[in-house]
Specification:
Elements lengths: L40 H10 L6 H17 L1 E4 L7 E4 L1 H4 L2 H18 L6 E5 L3 H12 L2 E7 L7 E8 L2 E8 L8 E9 L3 H12 L3 E10 L13 E3 L12
Parallel strand pairs: 3-4, 3-7, 7-8, 8-9
Antiparallel strand pairs: 1-2, 4-6, 5-6
GO molecular function: adenine binding; adenine phosphoribosyltransferase activity; AMP binding
Main location: cytoplasm
Function: Catalyzes a salvage reaction resulting in the formation of AMP, that is energically less costly than de novo synthesis.
């Protein structure tokens, strides 16, 4: 939801012209003098691109530092919720405003280094994607759209099935929540088997959106969930590469 950053367009000025430009008529709106009460479109454009211009070694170093800080805040619980899983609890991040800000800023840095245009929509998965998805969307100037379990959303919905350990489950999104052609980031706290994230991607496609990236805080690498996904995957913090006990 990757390409080099584009640069702002340059305005060309005529040379050797002996005819002075006509002064603006009183009350007439021009590019340099927007009408009263209207924001300058040039300033708006510059502001929207400013957040997408943070790149280079300094930003990479800052992102690396934030990752160390966030990783140190996690609590670890072996064999939860099942044997062989090292559960890393992200909730301490949200209990500390400074850490929460660090998380959002780290994700913003990654996105601004990766994409030349901001996403149109951030889609958060039920339920921990709701912890940081809306805040990230607000920071990026994007819409936030929730994916919820079947029966939790009012009105007409699109539905996608995915498999869990003990059977099938269903995700839904409201019709029209994502517009055709919109660029979408899908976020959740962790990727394990990848089934729920894949279902969210299916829903975005049904609504006509384009998934540009899946973003997770953590990953259980040994479950190879990213292999099920149809767009690039980014994990902010290092995941669990092997099952506990090596089995």
């Amino acid at each position: 939801m990757s390409a080099p950053h584009d640069s702002p367009a340059h305005h060309k000025h005529p040379v050797n012209s002996t005819t002075p430009a006509d002064p603006p008529v009183a009350g007439e709106a021009t590019a340099a003098h927007p009408p009263p009460g209207k924001p300058d479109p040039t300033l708006e454009s510059n502001a929207s691109q400013r957040r997408l211009s943070t790149a280079g070694p300094a930003a990479s170093a800052e992102l690396a530092s934030l990752k160390v800080k966030l990783k140190a805040a996690l609590r670890q619980f072996p064999d939860f919720p099942a044997p062989g899983i090292l559960f890393e609890d992200i909730l301490p991040i949200f209990a500390d405003p400074e850490l929460f800000e660090a998380l959002i800023h780290a994700l913003e840095l990654h996105i601004t280094q990766t994409f030349t245009e901001k996403p149109d929509v951030v889609v958060g998965l039920d339920a921990r994607g709701f912890l940081f998805g809306p805040t990230l969307a607000l920071r990026l100037g994007a819409a936030f759209v929730p994916v919820r379990k079947r029966g939790k959303l009012p009105g007409p919905c699109e539905t996608a099935e995915y498999m869990k350990e003990y059977g099938a489950d269903f995700f839904q999104m409201q019709e029209g929540a994502v517009k055709p052609g919109q660029k979408v980031l899908i976020v959740d706290d962790i990727i394990a088997t990848g089934g729920s994230a894949a279902a969210a991607g299916t829903l975005v496609e049904k609504l006509g959106g384009k998934v540009t990236e899946y973003i997770f805080i953590l990953e259980l690498d040994f479950l190879k969930g990213r292999d099920k996904l149809n767009a690039p995957v980014y994990t902010l913090l290092s995941g669990q590469e092997e099952k506990l006990g090596g089995n």
